[in-house]
Write a structure and sequence with these properties.
Length: 346
């Protein structure tokens, strides 16, 4: 993390009242979702004390709490006011919980565009058995259940207990749908037991995409079909005067945030290695024109802050970049690959 950024986070934490080092970091995590590194915290505290912006409280005991001085409060207020027109008016500061994020992503225009391609490619029919790998909050259940009708079956699988619980709520009233909390790396299904498999953006997160694809191949009947959608995050671009900062933001996302950031381009090769026959690859580019809608998908401010912490951007460059996104006509784009693969007969 850049020293100036760490200092600002420490001052924000101390604005809530006197705290010692561990409590400061606990408050920083509440504000940002991540703690400061030990070196960043100690350096920030030393610099703030040297500037007269924080001071120790004279109390007995082993702990040595610190508080903001009057000068520190004035500096903090100025810093927050300078960024308020972006952070308050345009972009989210706090990360949404996983369930809420998945639900709003599913409702976005960008998501609906590639999902329509997926549904057509899946071609699920009444009476078929379908498995939704990484079903999340169950946002795709209604469409998949309608395709197989009550004579078919749909199994939603997610490893996250909160997601699985929310998916069960979505499955209420859909008699052909059930949900299992399980790993996509080891599906709780017999060999050759399903006709269709649906996988929406899970391979970018899993530890071993090849193993997930091998499991999908195992549970598919001969002639069965797997339809996958995965982003290629290196394709993320912004129309912004500061091209270097835009590239740094994307590079940070691909190198530090998303586990398998290039999976979109890799899926056809990995599917072939897993014994599946790739029959179609369709790139679907999502073009985002509304900065608020883009922020709800990309977490622009949060990830720009992380890019600063990890040395991809300086704090001033990140702030200028966010200001530009908020003030200029906005355009960002990212490509999602919809890949269709089938289980070979015999």
């Amino acid at each position: 993390m850049q020293t100036a950024d760490a200092q600002l986070l420490v001052m924000c934490a101390l604005a809530r009242g006197p705290r010692h080092g561990y409590a400061i970091n606990t408050t920083v995590k509440e504000l940002t979702g991540e703690r400061l590194g030990r070196g960043s915290l100690s350096s920030a505290l030393a610099r703030l004390q040297a500037k007269g912006l924080v001071e120790p409280l004279q109390v007995q005991g082993r702990q040595h709490p610190l508080r903001l001085t009057q000068a520190g409060r004035q500096v903090l207020e100025q810093e927050l006011q300078s960024a308020a027109h972006v952070t308050q008016r345009m972009f989210e500061a706090a990360a949404p919980d996983k369930v809420h994020y998945q639900e709003r992503l599913a409702a976005s225009q960008a998501s609906r565009a590639y999902k329509s391609v997926m549904f057509l490619a899946l071609a699920a029919r009444p009476g078929q058995a379908v498995v939704d790998l990484g079903c999340g909050a169950g946002g795709d259940f209604a469409g998949l259940a309608e395709a197989v009708t009550i004579s078919g079956s749909l199994l939603g699988i997610d490893h996250d207990p909160a997601m699985a619980d929310r998916a069960r709520d979505c499955a209420r009233g859909l008699g052909q749908v059930r949900v299992a909390q399980a790993e996509a790396h080891a599906l709780p299904l017999q060999d050759a037991s399903v006709d269709r498999a649906w996988s929406d953006r899970i391979l970018q997160h899993v530890a071993d995409p090849g193993q997930v694809l091998a499991e999908a191949r195992r549970v598919l009947r001969p002639g069965g079909r797997l339809v996958m959608a995965e982003p290629d995050w290196e394709s993320l671009v912004f129309d912004h005067p500061d091209r270097e900062s835009s590239r740094a933001y994307t590079r940070h996302l691909t190198e530090r945030i998303v586990r398998n950031a290039l999976i979109g381009r890799q899926v056809p090769r990995l599917a072939g290695r897993a014994g599946l026959e790739v029959t179609d690859v369709a790139p679907v580019t999502a073009v985002l024109r509304d900065p608020r809608a883009a922020d709800r998908i990309l977490g622009l401010q949060r990830n720009a802050q992380r890019a600063v912490e990890n040395g991809y951007l300086t704090a001033p460059a990140a702030q200028r970049w966010l200001d530009g996104l908020a003030e200029e006509p906005f355009l960002a784009a990212v490509t999602v690959y919809v890949v269709v693969a089938e289980s070979r007969s015999g």
